[in-house]
Amino acid sequence: MDALSLIDGLTSSKTSSIDLPAWKQKCYDAMNDDFNTPVLIAVLFEGVKFINLLKEGKAQVSETDLKILSETMNQFIFDVLGLESTTQLNASSDKLGGVVALLIQLRNEARANKDFATSDKIRDELANMGIQLMDGKEGTTFSII
User: Which residues contact 135 (CB under 8 A, 6 or more apart)?
Assistant: First the structure.
């Protein structure tokens, strides 16, 4: 997915040395062939090759073809295959970290007030969700198990 981040930095030309409409059709042909994901992934890697050639200046594409490349890559990677961008994953991870930090804070307050039932409930419920709390000298940390 690093190749996708390069697309915005690519410049277009007046002509194209890559037949991107034909490449786009290959993506659709793979899906029309009983959702042939191995073929689709191979064709998408061909798109990555195009991006690298453009970045290195070894190929050129028109503005229209650059738009086809960008839209097709995004459409098939995210919408068809259902992958998530690293930006989306990082945002989800940050949100999870914030929620767990809040729960750790509430658990610490419960422990300070000697409300061990609440403290244990927070720890146990997080464990049931696959989040392990670890109490140490420098505070409480967590890991996904």
Answer: none
Asked if 46 and 23 count as a contact pair (C-beta separation under 8 A), the reply is yes
**DSSP H or E run through 71:** helix 63-74
Beta strand segments in the chain, E: 131-136, 139-144
The string of DSSP letters for 39-54 reads HHHHHHHHHHHHHHHH
Residue 36 and residue 27 in contact, taking contact as beta carbons nearer than 8 Å = no
What single letter denotes the amino acid at residue 80? Answer: V
Distance CA 100, CA 117 (A): 18
**How many angstroms separate the CA atoms of 43 and 56, rounded?**
20
Domain ranges (residues) in the chain:
2-80, 86-144
- Contact, 132 vs 126, CB < 8 A? yes
Distance CA 134, CA 125 (A): 14
Q: Could you read off the pLDDT of 19-73 as tens digits, one per residue?
A: 999 999 999 999 999 999 999 999 999 999 999 999 999 999 999 999 999 999 9
The answer as to CATH 3.20.20 being correct for domain 2-80 is: no
